[in-house]
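Q: Okay, next protein. This is HEAT repeat protein from Stieleria marina. I've checked the sequence twice, so it should be correct. Can you predict the 3D structure?
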Amino acid sequence: MEGDLQSDPQLVAAALVNGVVNDLLYQSQFELPHYPEWVDLAVIATGLGTLRSGIAFVKKTGLHWDSTQWGAAPRPFLNIPSLAYANAMAAWVRSDSAPSWASDLNSEIKRPMRVALKYLNKTKDSFFQISTASQAITSIDQTDWWKRSRNAMPSTQVIALGRLIGDADLPSDQESSLVQSLRSNNRAIVLHSIAAAERMRVDSDVVADELRSLVNDRDDEVRAKSLCAVTSLGKLDDSTIQSTDEMLDSHFKHNVFAAIYALSTLDSIPEFIMPSVQRAFMRALKSCDYEFVGLFAAAYNHWFDDPRSRVETFLQDSPELMPIAIDAIEGAPKETVAIG
């Protein structure tokens, strides 16, 4: 420990703070106290975050991470933008518009933190309000959540969209409200609207049309998220299937996942898409990305009566990759499992 302390005293001190706050969460029976992001937030909220904010564990978020499904797949730690915003929140809830401790923050954190704090002071755009902090989120009924989903404050809309529960056949006013959210200029609102439509299994041609249009959005996460939703809702059409061709060649991993997930639900795919499928499959094999290799293998088993011969044909110039692909093909389930 002494050697570690001398070599990186800041990291050791931050680790001790982290452990103390994590223990506090456990003693307080806090929900999901083992989530590293929760611990990072709690460290900052308790006023002990300056040391932690100077350590970058995560330079960028994972390429295949769905921001609307945080509870199912949280990130390992707060990244730099999230650290900046959390520090801004810590100052804002204390009504401190110019915290003296901000000057001690890492330069990567300091500037976006001050921008976020200025935004919060100007708009008060946060679902969390000290005056209403005692209200249990479970006490808010669905009528109120739908009303809040139309709130002018983006943070309130995002939280409300995540709490919506409804039948597949939405009343016209709720359908209109959801469509309006899908058309928002705010990226977070759009993503959570897509998630709400998928979660509620909305059966609406109007909503389906909006989701299909978002498959061609400029934002990669919106494209991937909307394609997964369209697929899950059984609303794929020829135009959407055509969009998967470009997405398979994307460097954004979530796009490739969404494309192969959508195509794997079909009994067969157009031949013009096969070159893109093969290139994406080849990239997965070369990078030893076994999760994706498995997805492609399952799709091949679903599409073809003799998937092995198809793989052997397109890998004839890459014999070193053949064993991996064949093992995956022979070990993959014959039917794909819907991702719910």
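A: Here is a summary of the prediction. The CA atoms of residues 88 and 116 lie 6 Å apart. The chain is about 60% helix and 0% strand.
Q: Noted. On to the next one.
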